[in-house]
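Illustration: Glutamate synthase domain-containing protein 2.
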Amino acid sequence: MLSFLSSIAWWGWILIALVLVAIRDIFIQKAHTISHNFPIVGHLRYWLESIGPEMRQYFVANNREELPFNRIERSWIYASAKKENNYEGFGTDRDIYAHQHIFINNAMMPYKISENHPNAIDKTFLPCAKVMGAFHKRRKPYRPASIINVSAMSFGSLSAKAIESLNKGVKIAGAYHNTGEGGLSPYHSHGGDVIFHFGTGYFGVRAIDGGFSMEKLIKLVEINPFVKAIEIKLSQGAKPGKGGVLPGAKITAELAFIRGVEIGKDVLSPPNHKAFTNVPEMVDFIEKIAESTGLPVGIKAAIGKLEQWEELANIMVETGKGPDFITVDGGEGGTGAAPPSFADHVSLPWVYGFSDLYKLFQDKGLSERIVFIGSGKLGFPAKAAMAFAMGADCINVAREAMMSIGCIQAQVCHTNRCPSGVATQNKWLQNGIDPTLKSERLAQYFKTFRKELVEITHAAGYEHPCQFQMRDVEINVDDHNLSKELNRTYMYEKTPVPFTSMQNLKDCLYLGGKIS
Ligand SMILES: Cc1cc2nc3c(=O)[nH]c(=O)nc-3n(C[C@H](O)[C@H](O)[C@H](O)COP(=O)(O)O)c2cc1C
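Result:
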């Protein structure tokens, strides 16, 4: 028998394998009609389809074609993060006459900085022009030392190595790191400022019944002085109002400890909060947290209907209470996993949602009391300039931050097979990440971003981007005579931010980021 088998030539074995595959395709498997009808060759279709995204990304798509982030955008982040040449030669390859294209109106003569100006000393110095918690006189107000920061992404959706890189990176860049709703992990504790974020699962501050535990939050803030503010998640752009289940199989001992849940048991994040059921109760909840911790408290949401926001604004006017900051997430926002029906259609894109919300708060005279944070593909200096012109005070970035530490936009965050090790719990894949190197990359991306935004600001004749007004940015509606400034497009004027000088921001008592 053995000598018969060894006498079969190599091509004979290939033939036998193909015959076996054909038998399986025709007689055994029932799931795939194409394989049944076209045995053997039918497999080629499935294989080509599976490598289609990579083929399109590497060879077919043009520079400006892909979504969520096209090649030019990704390359700009990669080059900025590595401090490489991030310029483009020969002029823009973008169709600047295209509909919705943004133009920033430059001044005849740029803003001139003096010899001792903070930006003459550090070109990347760009803190937030407003102080979180100042209006409500919180015991520990906080001025973010960077206008660009890391948006909510949990340990669990990102790997331990990625979270560690981000935290070490924000420390270098003087920015803050939002924990995401998975709790505060040891990987968030490498010295960067942290905004502790929680959602309906109350991970990290969860009572035994699955509700919110104030005792746990007070303790968490006490033993982790780098926590500078609290963010309550109402919704996020990629899946507003959608609850979720964390399967027991994914809950390791480490995850269970950090999130405050049981090992191996499914955990539900319901669509609604248990700690409050309506807007007045939410305001009371915010005040109780601020009172108990002394920290500024904000809310994060994607925008759709405005009735409950109006109720919130009315309560804020009547009582002088309410959130210290509001993070507006755009419908274009990212996530670890969401059904396409939600990600594609539920909630407004950032510009529409933010302009609706800002106008509403401004009409009630509230815009100066609130620090407005924007997220939703805003991690590019010109887009940020537009966001500041519309009333944003800070920018949060999630996927752009991921890319700066090596994410290649493989779009497989939901499979645990992220090839770059950023969005996976697979030890082998994440071991490719060197947190020391990657933290430098995040910090360098943030610094380059701030430097370019400062330069755009100076080109427009201002000292700080908070001085951008709606009329400084135009949006193309096909002809210059028809192109409209933001104030005529979105029908409001931004409330001027009471900015005095960059030096005053530098000297501020509440400036975060441990900048010396
Ligand atoms: C992997 C991943 C995990 C996220 N986790 C959270 C989360 O825990 N809570 C939350 O409010 N938003 C979460 N987000 C949304 C981001 O914080 C951010 O609002 C959104 O992606 C828009 O920012 P971007 O366009 O810069 O990515 C997550 C996004 C990503 C990509």
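Reading the tokens back as a structure: The first strand starts at residue 102 and ends at 104.
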